Amino acid sequence: MSESYASSLVLRFVLTFRASRVWSGSQAETPSLFGHGKVCAPVNAAPHRVVVVGSGFGGLFATKALRRSDVEVTLVARTAHHLFQPLLYQVATGILSEGEIAPSTRIVLRDQRNANVLIGDVTDIDPDTRTVTSVHRGRVTVTPYDSVIVAAGAGQSYFGNDRFAEFAPGMKTLDDALELRGRIMNAFDAAELATDPAERARLLTFVVVGAGPTGVEMAGQIAELSKRTLAGTFRTIDPRDARIVLLDAAPKVLPPFADSLGEHARRRLESLGVEVTLNAAVTDVDTDGLVVRAADGTEHRIEAATKVWSAGVSASPLGAMLASKSDAEIDRAGRVLVNPDLTVPGLPNVFVVGDMMALDGLPGVAQVAIQGGRYAARVIADEVKAAAEGRPVPERRPFRYRDKGSMATVSRFSAVAQVGPVKITGFLAWLMWLVVHVAYVVGFKSRLTTVCNWAWTFLGRTRTQLTVTHQQTEARLALGRLVSLEDARAARETPVRPEQLAG
């Protein structure tokens, strides 16, 4: 090695060492972005890490609202799609395909360079280590965060009778909708083959439990499917003879709406041949039917092959987990009682939005999730920007929900809508429902095909998505049995400790 080359190496080392001493001595300590006072971040500080749990309305809209912020967003969800849940009943009744209401989350966020999508079921959120743990097919992923937005949604509630789920699927996932489509169409096919009148009547009886918006829409579409689309397609049976029953323990249809709107929906359903039974609680469900208890305590049985459960919701178990690690409480539905800024009490960098949050009696509807997700994203973006510019962290304003009204379809050309004190029924409400819902369908192609399918279904009698497979109908129960077998095998292979034998 030449002397000049060795000297240059020594000089370079000295200069580098002095520069590092100057940098480390002048760098100010960076407190949390969610503290008070002025924040001075180093020029080359790592971007703020935001983890979003859930790809529903709250999670997706929160992620998209951060697209122009200097943050790194990781969206963790158990599915690879964004689900437009209010239109699930149209997948179940053959109006829309699953792709039209459930686009790929990765494709939706493809052009958002600061967003990454991870598939996994979130099992833990640790405020101490600031990590989110998720599991996908046995692979455990731990994702660090500076802020987290929890929008894991809610599942179906059977009010402590989870065994009902085997016989009466809910309406919360694509799998639910596809299974219900299979059960509905298979019931008509089986009725065509039945020779016993009682068995045929059972196969042609459809019971929807829950007279909220989902139940009303589902009952109305099963009625129209049987009376319009399937009329004349069978030779032994007449699908128009199908019996559709709508049950609810409440005293009115559409409890969240004004009484006059609920009464309008009830009359319209009855004009379609739907039997509406109120003040009726379901006490038992099995393969062949269900038992109903009336308000006077008497019980009667309805023989029905196809049952749909839309009577209640229960928040994600992540709500109870967060409450156990903070000062938060949960309500009877498992929702977290959040602060006015949608954070978990004691955890100012953990936001909870959508169906998982409980605040001021807000309903579990899409608009609450969308506005909550955008609000949480805006708070994070404002505080990150203030920290980057060395300004005081802005005071958080409380979340304010802007009620844009509630809508529910009853049948084609008929819906109910309530916007503040204004109540609208019939064809005008139905047009409003169409416009609002197509606006929130993600992607131009999906909007276009949705409108086309609506035109074919509502103006004509065609439903283009009535194809069913054996897998759609049987997969959920088969997987459930497989899990039970795996659990039983694991229990057999678990060694017994001496103290257990002694006990």
Automatic annotation (TrEMBL):
Catalyzed reactions: a quinone + NADH + H(+) = a quinol + NAD(+)
Reported EC number(s) for this entry are: 1.6.5.9
Q: Please give the start and end residues of each transmembrane region.
A: 427-444
Listed name of the protein: NADH:ubiquinone reductase (non-electrogenic)
**Organism field:** Rhodococcoides kroppenstedtii
Family note: Belongs to the NADH dehydrogenase family.
UniProtKB keywords:
FAD, Flavoprotein, Membrane, NAD, Oxidoreductase, Transmembrane, Transmembrane helix
FAD/NAD(P)-binding domain residues are: 49-373
> What is the uppermost EC class here?
oxidoreductase
Which Gene3D superfamilies does the annotation name? 3.50.50.100
User: What Pfam family is a match, any one?
Assistant: Pyr_redox_2
Taxonomy, superkingdom: Bacteria
